[in-house]
């Protein structure tokens, strides 16, 4: 069943009742839900409902129109871009990477999100905060100049880094809303410690950092806001965990080797774009929806675009539940179990991806359904349009075709449905970039 067949008023009522009932159960590593956290949870779910689009096909069409238009224009402008030193190869990158003065115009990036997370502006309306100290020694009173001190501030902030650094987090890094992590101009590795937690927040950008070798942390008293301190239980070891949050954009991040997931998005999080990232050497790569029983995840809407799923990956690229997922123009190479999976009747639109299967005889299929007989999952809306399949890869479709809102489709709408031969170009610069000041990034 497509998400758009659910009436919005019914969804709102269902979701509200569910979130109220599950706050004590779905503790998200919170030992005690005090009044402050209860209020944040309720406000966050209300924000997710506002961010939810009852016509998700309109967002996918807008995204595809933009890609189509850019591909048409590239033929005439590629030489000029090379002469200017600009090597941007997809619409998100072309929004900002050709500016040699990007370091003076950092916040231009905030206008470049596309897909379901297109309203995300992060700390655009705030001041620049410079992280000068890679240490993470005090969970209760973080030292000024550290990343932990930056992300708990109450106001919008655009957070940058003074030099190359490796940040080893002693406990999970818990964000407040309206923040941008902008690693351009420095090589910033968040590694060998805990990961990032976006819980009950809105409007966050994570851009141009390396996150790897993430391990669980023991928990304890951690400040999650200037005016709040709470006790956290042991963390799972996710690189990035998004919990009951909305308007999130993760872009140009290189992720590998965490104990649990590289990116987990759960608990009615929505309006999210994951783009231009590079994933390597991991088992459970990307989880979008944690439990089949979490019906509130019906409002989850995620765009996964221009990413490279590379060496040593096994499964969950992504693994989806309940919501609407646009998986577009990604590069998949040699998965060891499956690439795209799910349960609880998610809607998955796979467009213009390049799937190159492993050599193993029994791991050619892109898709995997769980916890449902064929008579049920054949009703789930999983569609492949314009994908390129290599080395025996194949996608098992189900459900009716996606209904488009604009009819008839024009050439600009349909150009993205050509075979995924564009993917090599579109994903060429996926992952964290080494940007030099004074030159296009």
Stated plainly, the CATH topology is called Pectate Lyase C-like
Sequence stretches where pLDDT stays below 50 over 5 or more residues = 1-6, 19-26, 407-418
CATH architecture assignment name: 3 Solenoid
Helix content: 10-25%
The whole-angstrom Rg is: 21 Å
Q: Determine the N-to-C terminus distance.
A: 43 Å
Number of extended strands: 31
What order do the strands of the largest sheet run in, or round the barrel if closed?
A: 1-2-5-8-13-16-20-24-27-30
Tell me the structural class: alpha/beta
Please give the largest β-sheet. 10 strands, parallel
Pfam families: Pec_lyase_N, Pectate_lyase_4
Organism: Dorcoceras hygrometricum
Protein name: Pectate lyase
Enzyme class: lyase
General description of the model:
The protein is α/β, with parallel strands linked by helices and 441 residues long. Helix content is 18%, strand content 29%. The chain has one domain: 3 Solenoid (Pectate Lyase C-like), CATH 2.160.20. A 10-stranded parallel beta sheet has the order 1-2-5-8-13-16-20-24-27-30. A 9-stranded parallel beta sheet has the order 3-6-9-14-17-21-25-28-31, with no helix packed on it. Helix 1 packs antiparallel against helix 2 (35-51).
């Amino acid at each position: 069943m497509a998400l758009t067949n659910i009436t919005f008023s019914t969804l709102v009522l269902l979701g509200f009742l569910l979130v109220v009932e599950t706050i004590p159960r779905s503790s998200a590593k919170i030992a005690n839900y005090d009044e402050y956290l209860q209020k944040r949870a309720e406000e966050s779910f209300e924000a997710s409902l506002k961010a939810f689009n009852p016509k998700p096909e309109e967002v996918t069409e807008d995204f595809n129109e933009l890609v189509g238009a850019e591909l048409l224009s590239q033929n005439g402008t590629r030489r000029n871009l090379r002469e200017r030193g600009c090597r941007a190869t997809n619409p998100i990158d072309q929004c900002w990477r050709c500016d040699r003065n990007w370091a003076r115009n950092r916040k231009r990036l905030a206008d470049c999100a596309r897909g379901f997370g297109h309203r995300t502006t992060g700390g655009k309306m705030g001041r620049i905060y410079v992280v000068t100290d890679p240490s993470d020694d005090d969970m209760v009173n973080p030292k000024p100049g550290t990343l932990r001190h930056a992300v708990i501030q109450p106001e919008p902030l655009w957070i940058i880094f003074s030099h190359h650094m490796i940040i080893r987090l002693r406990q999970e890094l818990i964000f407040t809303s309206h923040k941008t992590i902008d690693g351009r101009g420095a090589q910033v590795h968040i590694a060998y410690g805990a990961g990032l937690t976006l819980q009950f927040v809105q409007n966050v950008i994570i851009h141009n950092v390396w996150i790897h070798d993430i391990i669980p942390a023991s928990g304890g008293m951690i400040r999650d806001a200037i005016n709040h301190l709470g006790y956290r239980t042991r963390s799972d070891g996710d690189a990035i965990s998004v919990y009951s949050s909305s308007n999130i954009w993760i872009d140009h991040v290189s992720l590998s080797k965490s104990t649990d997931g590289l990116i987990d998005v759960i608990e009615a999080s929505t309006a999210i774009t994951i783009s231009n990232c590079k994933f390597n050497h991991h088992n459970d790569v990307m989880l979008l929806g944690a439990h089949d029983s979490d019906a509130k995840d019906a409002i989850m809407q995620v765009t996964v675009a221009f990413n490279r799923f590379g060496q040593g990956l096994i499964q969950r690229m992504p693994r989806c539940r309940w919501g609407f997922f646009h998986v577009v123009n990604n590069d998949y190479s040699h998965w060891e179990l499956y690439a795209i999976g799910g349960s609880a009747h998610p809607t998955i639109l796979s467009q213009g991806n390049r799937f190159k299967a492993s050599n193993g005889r029994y791991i050619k299929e892109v898709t995997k359904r769980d916890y449902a007989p064929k008579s049920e999952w054949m009703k789930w809306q999983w569609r492949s349009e314009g994908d390129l399949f290599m080395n025996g890869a194949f996608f098992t479709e189900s459900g009716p075709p996606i209904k488009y809102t604009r009819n008839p489709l024009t050439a600009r709408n349909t150009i993205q449905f050509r075979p995924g031969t564009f993917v090599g170009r579109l994903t060429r610069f996926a992952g964290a970039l080494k940007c030099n000041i004074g030159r296009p990034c």
